[in-house]
Write a structure and sequence with these properties.
Layout: H1 3-9, H2 29-38, H3 43-57, H4 65-68
Helix pairs in contact: 1-3, 2-3
């Protein structure tokens, strides 16, 4: 993980699926949990979804709040 990855979470939209167009940082925990069980996609989007799942699972979503205000 890098600081840039945290910024990407608040700037990158989900490119497919039920929540297409939503920011990765706004995806609900149950959706992130589904990916954790079924497998994250390959590439950068999968890495970011995995990071967002970790933040959600550990109740650390608030770390992204200062980045949203930029």
């Amino acid at each position: 993980m890098s600081p840039e990855d945290l910024e990407r979470l608040v700037a990158t939209e989900m490119p497919f699926g039920k929540f297409k167009g939503h920011l990765l940082a706004d995806l609900p925990g149950h959706y992130l949990g589904w990916f954790a069980r079924e497998g994250f996609p390959k590439g950068q989007i999968g890495r970011l979804l995995s990071l967002m799942h970790e933040l959600d699972h550990n109740n650390l979503r608030a770390l992204l709040d200062p980045l949203r205000r930029r």
